[in-house]
Design a protein that fits this description.
Strands 1, 2, 3, 4, 5, 6, 7, 8, 9 and 10 form a ten-stranded mixed sheet that branches. Strand 9 and strand 10 form a beta hairpin. By secondary structure, this protein is an alpha+beta fold. It is about 25% helix and about 30% strand. It contains six helices and ten strands; from the N terminus they run ββββααβαβββββααα.
């Protein structure tokens, strides 16, 4: 981060699931998106730059979920180590100024998490997990957006201020695609323009490409040892891997 401070203003956080095929340990099941199955696995939560370059990762044999890892492992470390953060006097003078931005997918969607991050002066950026009905087409205006690759593309964007279930006021930015689909983004970043926010959100493919490249060329999923250790806390809470199917059923009934 010190070597490339311009890349350390926004951090992408996502989990890479490493399937366990051994017999020495009985691990909880985890949903493996690339296989669409619930399998025994460990998880590594990677923190990457906008162009996909990695900063660090947090390994979890027992996965407590993205929200927990963000709050207890990643954000505290970034507050200590991320370079070029605003000074306390600057944060005091500007209520909308933030230390940095963290970008994550729907797994981390939580109004309470966004509120707690805001209190730490960290801006959150994620997809809206439960968007309401489509907005009127007249709200969408063309914007020239510079992508991480340097390419400039035109996106049709619209913005509203919305209040979440816990009372937190956020920006909701939507992109209208050629097919008519509206992708909804939520953020507590009140300093950046909507084009920059859209470019940052849709640059998540860089982190996905990083995982794919590391699996194919650096054997990211290999088992590094054959030993097993006792779990320090046998009552640790984990995410139910069936929650994705349950949420899909709920959405269909709404």
């Amino acid at each position: 981060m010190e070597a490339a401070p311009e890349e350390a203003a926004a951090f992408y956080v996502d989990g890479h699931v490493r399937v366990y095929h051994g017999e020495k340990a009985v691990l909880p099941n985890h949903y493996v998106a690339r296989q669409k199955l619930c399998l025994r696995a460990t998880v590594e939560y990677w923190v990457n730059a906008m162009d996909g370059q990695p900063f660090f990762f947090v390994h979890k044999d027992i996965d407590p979920g993205l929200i927990s890892v963000l709050e207890h492992d990643i954000i505290p470390r970034l507050i200590l180590e991320a370079p070029k953060q605003p000074e306390p006097a600057e944060l005091e003078a500007d209520k909308h100024l933030h230390r940095f931005v963290v970008i994550f997918d729907r797994e981390g969607y939580s109004p309470d998490l966004l509120l707690r991050l805001k209190r730490l002066r960290v801006a959150g950026l994620t997809y809206h997990k439960h968007p309401e009905e489509d907005w009127g087409l007249e709200e969408f205006m063309p914007h020239l957006v510079k992508l991480v690759s340097g390419e400039i593309v035109e996106m049709k964007l619209a913005e509203r201020g919305v209040r979440l279930s816990n009372g937190l006021w956020v920006r909701e930015i939507r992109r209208l695609t050629a097919s008519g689909h509206q992708t909804a983004i939520l953020t507590t970043d009140f300093k950046s323009d909507r084009g920059r926010i859209a470019a940052a959100m849709f640059a998540r493919w860089s982190q996905e490409n990083f995982f794919k490249y590391m699996r194919q060329h650096f054997n990211l999923d290999r088992l590094v040892e054959y030993g097993a250790q006792e779990i320090p806390d046998p009552k640790v809470r984990v995410v139910n891997p069936e929650h994705r199917r349950l949420e899909a059923r709920v959405r269909k009934t709404q």
